[in-house]
Amino acid sequence: MAGNNKRKRRKRPATKHYRINTATVIAIVILAYFIARVAMTISKPKISTYEVTAQRINDTISTKALALRSEHVVNIDQAGYVIYYVADKERVGVNSNVYAIDSTGSVNSQLSAEEDSIAISDDDYIDLKNQITDYKNAYKDSEYSTIYDFKYSLDNNIMEIMNDSIIKKINKLTSEGIISDSLLKKKASETGVVSYCYDGMENLTVDNVSPDSFNHTDTSMTQIRSSDIYDANTPVYRLVNSEEWQLVMELTKDQYDKIKKEEFLSVKFLKDDLTVERACEFFERGGGYFVSLSFNKYMERYMDDRYLDVEIIIDSVKGLKIPNSSVLTEELYSIPMKYSTMADEAVSGVTFNKIVKDDNGYYETVAFAPTICYVDNKHDLYYVSSVDVSAGDQIIYTPSDTKDKDDEEDNKIKNGDGEIYTISKKKEFKGVFLINKGFTQFIVINSLYEADDFCIAEDNNLYGISQYDHIILNHSSIGEGQNIY
Prior knowledge:
485 residues, 6 helices
């Protein structure tokens, strides 16, 4: 029995051989590629770019200006009601009727007894509506003081409408014999432009301007015309009798020192954005610093303004706006222009003959065209990046009669072949990283104006920056010659 108890052996399972097919290999490769790309994207520094734009910058001084004119206030010589024959800002000649006095009040009483109210024509209504709409559209909280000018202008227009209506009534009642022409008419004693507002500073001239003259800049003009009775010896109108006038501006000591050598100044009137250039005169008085400009135009435009907000335009710069975060400094190698081998730089670029050693130990020349970062025409130098050349590199200047050689053997350097220049001199320049070609390329900029956040660089430079170029916005995490795309 014991002999029949045979132990059965377990068969080992056959070893399985896994076969990797082509599809699996491709899938693994693609997966590895995507993992690598994701890892590179995550680890790659974020790069922001900026498109270069053109911009004009005005360096200005904002200040208050004092308008001085040849003007005087005319007072009424006796009490009474006043009827005006001349519109505001209308020019009058000598002996022209300006106003009339109803000293007894009889004409005013007769007009008041009339049932007809003051008629406002459609044109008058449209003018008033447009004036209100224009002010509403142009209103700014920062220019709240303009409401006084608006009020004066609106009052003036209403008074014009009332006065025209009164004159028509007087003419009608006089022709009908209802009232007699008992008005005392007053004529202008000289030629000029009539204004119906004043401020008491009509006698101020450039010769007596002082710092105190600018302590009342919030003073507004007083409206003269009224429907009430006028007292004797009170203002009845203001007459400006010359087109010539002056603008005086108060400056700080620093502003005065900055521009006191200028012969002409450009001034922008902020009220209506008019910019004019005039000869200027600087003077000091009473511890203040001033500049004055003389005009023979625009008197009527500003005749009801004593103080004007202006900007003195010191300098106007037009160029390319560059963020300061894009600007960096790099050292560039200089190469004398005479070592270049191409004449047409703008089309073909600039090439040089560089001396190199071949596999057999012979020295030969190889043409290469480095990127020109800056051109110094004064000293006849090209400046190139260290990406293209290194200190110790040698280039050779070959006379023109030996430059054209077809035999490759003729490129071997022989004694007396030409003048050799060893690259070594470096100079620091300010510039940006250009990325138009998909990699960073250092380009020199010539700054014309600098602000806190940006600068204005020179345009139209053969090897410089141009409008619509794309540059690196922040260069701190990137170097020259680095691929971007």
